[in-house]
Amino acid sequence: MGSPLLARALLLLYPGAFRRRFEPEWWELVEWHRRGLAGVPFSGTRLALLLLFDTLRTLPGVYASAMSARLRGGSSGGWGREARHAVHALVRHPVFTLAAVLSVAVGVGANVATFSVVNTVLLRPLPYEDPERLAIVWNEFPSSERTRLPLTGPQVQVLREEPDLFERVEAIWSMSGSVVARDGRTAQVSLAFATPGLFDLLGVSPALGRDWARDGVGDGEAPDGVMISDELWRGRFGGDRSLVGSTIDMDGWVVPVIGVLPPDFVLHLPEDGSIPPRPDVYLALPWDLSSLQPGQRYLRVVGKLRPDVDRARAAAGVAAAGERALATYPELQRAGDRLSVHPLHGDAVRAARPALLALLGAVVLFLLLASANVASLILARTLSRTREMAIRSAIGATPGRLAGLVVLESLMVSGAGALLGAWLGFLGASALWSLRPTGLARVSSVPFDARVLVFALALLILTSVASTLASLIAVRALARSLGVRGAGATSSRTARRAREIVTAGQVAAGLVLVVGSALMIRSVATLGRESIGFDPSSRLTFKLPITESRFSTDGERARVAAEVERRVSEIPGVRAVGATSHLPFAPWANWAQGAPPVGTPAEERGAYFADLRAVTPDFFSAVGASLVAGRFFEDSDDTESEPVVIMDETMASRAFPGGDAVGRRVDTTRYFGGQFTPAVATVVGVIRDIRDRGPSEPSTGQVFWPFAQSARWELTFFVRAAGDPAALATEVERAVRAADPELAPANLSPMDDYVAGATAFTRFLALVGTWFSALALLVAAIGLYGVVAFVTIQRTHELGMRLVLGASRRDLLARVLAHGLRVGAIGVGVGLAGTVVLARFLSGLVYGVSPYDPATLAGVALLLMAVAVVASLAPARRAMRADPLSAVREA
Amino acid sequence: MPTRPTTHPIAGTTFYVLLALADKPRYGLEIAEEVEARTSGEVRLGPGTLYGAIQKMLGSGLLEDWTPPDAAQDDPRRRYYRITRKGRDAVASEASRLEQLVEAARAKRVLPGT
């Protein structure tokens, strides 16, 4: 029974005097309520709720009357009057009030917005059944640069034979295809092939229709029928409920639709897993995968761990299963596959996590900076009110009451700021979300849940505590100067020291923020200059659906590709046309296979994985690739001729470190005769690396087949235009129809769009970082200006005396500037130390620049010192113009 | 005829507590029991509500502490409260205010039985 504990905790929330007076009776009343609830269902919960609401409702009143009772000793008037006073005082000083409220609001707003994104992406459990038990299994090749490859069918079967480890294991794979929509037009769609139990494993049921059923289907056969996404159903079939139970035309085959998935269903898999977040059509794989393409690594595997299996046991068990698969299946032995298991959620957000955490760190730092600003403002404002406070004190206000006044004012400021900030944050989260890069495509909205509210509340408390502390320091200094006249100098020295420390802290935090965003900006600049191996500008791309149902033989697919290529190349304004099975930077499924030199021992084959692509002969010239050795493909490299491949430099130097790749032979795979088949091919050329996965990701090795020798069903054309590539769209469509009246180009878009998509995340971080560091610089400059101006005014007497005693005005200027620079330098020093500590968190986010980059650090340090000079200049000039006589008289 | 100390209506809890104390001084639990009885079990004051109100009423002089003559025999936890003159005036003026309202309600026939 938790109520006594709860009652005790709630009682602790009341003021001490209240507790001391009423506690003995309090328990009698709690007991009375407990007796009254005896025998009622959930009596314990009811009592707890009663006590909770009772406390929440009465706490403010109890505090208010306790405070007004205490304050009544000193002066007339209640707390309410003081609150009105405080509001008036704040309204009379709009600059102070606005500066303070906005500082808190922007700081809190940025935090709430960022935290709500972090919460959605990193903290909220995946929307599946038992999400914490879901795990993803990858193939790892320690000898290769590729740490994550999909699994083979036999490996999935072996994992399924581990009932002590997994409750079940399911797999998915994706490719692209086409569907004839209701209006008769062919739509390009993304297809996913899933094992029939995948949806059951995730705990997702179709919104309409049913899942694949086991009965009547042999283990080696795939259940009939497809499930489609809500988007496809509504967008292409008008949301017609009768579609379930009827058929659709997919890649030329007629297939029954058995279900429609819920509108919010998303596959939460890692971005680099090459499975789209929302496939349009799901087809079933057979229940038993052991005999399906046994040597092909294509299956992304999700398992549900048994409840009693922890991470260590899962890792050991999966590794052991991997060993067993290796022993059982000779195909795997050739590459030395090794299995590893990871929590699904952690793996799915692996790429986004460091960036989001860095962003959260930046906004927390920014909030600290803003809070420091408020503290500094409160200090300054309180000390400027010595006269007012002295009068209040003279007419009978106790020190406690004066402290109460200052605290009340600062609480109003931070409270108003935090509330405004929370509101801004809720708005900002949607704005931040609308800017979100493709790396977070799997999350569709940022809901505000209890966790975000608690976070906002915690910030409110934090900023209130910070401003209360600052005002208490100010009050102490004030009390001393009011109490003992002679102590004035000491107290203002304390306050000055406090402000200097706060300001140095601001400069330090500002430096860290500016360094962070400077590194992001440099990364973006480097990315822009980085050679991706080809020029994406003035290139139009489009996909061509050459389905196997219409073009069933390798020869037919190669012929239609060549025909489209020829027709498009005849369009005026087209410089070159080529096509590839896998467009660089496009977020579509990858094709990775081993390509070891012939004769490589089995245990070393794992080191020779490469991204395989099938390209037309003109692809290289259309892309602008440069040849390092050998030759490009020719039209004569066709089905009849000897298999040939071209490698990029990375793959060539890995497979043939001697530099003599041309003429050597590799043991690889091609798509031939309707299936993936092993093939030995001769290397005929080596090209300079083409970046394929992203502008910041160097090639991990690519091997190109001539399309005619490996005629995959996917083909994306790459058109090099003389002018604006978008202007070619209509002509391209006409040319494709001329080649085959039933074909239409899909996904017509300039290559630049794919490049922009691939760099979006870094640019996004740089943009957000720039905003924050600009604000941080401004806030730090205002803080510096404030402290230097304040100290200079305080030293008017001293400076005047110096003038009288013969110091030059130049000396005064130097003195004031030196003060500003000293505070700035301390801040810069602390900030640099902080940057060095924090830099390692940035190492995964920056590109082409070290997080400890001395030039960046030095540049930003200089920038902040320059800010310190500028901020000190105005007060320094004022000091220089000081009239020595009046300065002396004033004192 | 008591003079009206205030024209402000007093809050529900304050009224209940003053009414409970109108006939004799009581301690906290007794007040809660009396209020419950007077309202046919409708109102069961929570500890924060009751003692928050008592603290406020002590501060504004509507109640005062009271020591029973036979204090030695009583439970030492219990503290008694007695209504003050000001408290009596406040409850009387609130009661007559309510009475006027009830009259008005009867006149407009919103109450049954008239």
Percent strand of chain B: 5-15%
**Which sequence of strands runs across the widest sheet of chain B?**
1-3-2
Unreliable stretches of chain A, pLDDT < 50, 5 or more residues? 484-490
Structural class of chain B: mainly alpha
Main beta sheet of chain B: 3 strands, antiparallel
**Overall radius of gyration of chain A:** 35 Å
Shape of chain B: elongated
Mean pLDDT across every amino acid position of chain A: 82
Distance between the termini of chain A: 69 Å
Multimeric status of the protein: heterodimer
Residue runs with pLDDT of under 50 for 5 or more positions of chain B: 1-7
Shape of chain A: globular
In total, the number of strands of chain A is 21
Question: What share of residues of chain A is helical?
Answer: 40-55%
Q: How large is the share of residues in beta strands of chain A? A: 15-25%
